[in-house]
From TrEMBL:
This is Siderophore-iron reductase FhuF. InterPro entries: Fe_iron_reduct (IPR008090), FhuF_C (IPR024726), IucA/IucC-like_C (IPR022770). Residues 26-162 form the Aerobactin siderophore biosynthesis IucA/IucC-like C-terminal domain. It comes from Crenobacter luteus. It comes from the Bacteria. Residues 176-197 form the Ferric siderophore reductase C-terminal domain.
Amino acid sequence: MADDVERLLAGVRPLYDGDDARALLSQWSKYYFNLVVPPALVAARVLKRPLAMALSESTVVLRHGLPHALWLPYDALGDEDDAPAPRYRSLCVEHLAPLIAQLSRAARLAPRVFWANAANTLEYALAHELPGGGCDADWLFGRREFFDTGEANPLYRAIRYVDTERAGLASPFRARRVCCLRDRLPGQTLLCSACPLLLSMSDAELAVQLTLREEE
């Protein structure tokens, strides 16, 4: 799927102006993660069961180039398990990791940008929408090791909560560690609510962002 870059770009171009392929594919990946992450979280957090979703055994249906539906094997739902590692391993190691590697090569963009997009969806749902999900979020984002792979955890502190005294920003401020590049696209003047650029911009620039958000 990620090898067909033009098809993916064709899906996201009607939504954004500009021809920065890296920024456009970053935005496309958000739609993808918003499709595949929720079912894994419902299984892992609500049902306490792993969902087998290896990329090689999953089918993502595209509609006009955008992710539309996810098909998994009929026996994808595993047995109940209290430990977080088996409940989230397939999503993170078998699905997200190879998919992000493909997107990174296709876009010639650092994997950390795509991991930050995935982390934003994953962490927000666990920490703010699913009862008791904070414990799972702490496990996923607080470990330096990436499950049992022997590799560094790409989710490690991908979302941080920063104490700030800047007027208009909540403290602690929930921030992605890596920007999604949306600001590189024409007309995208309003940054996302977790954009790390909000912490470093001037007071005048921040005031513009706060006004834009009030008008949204």
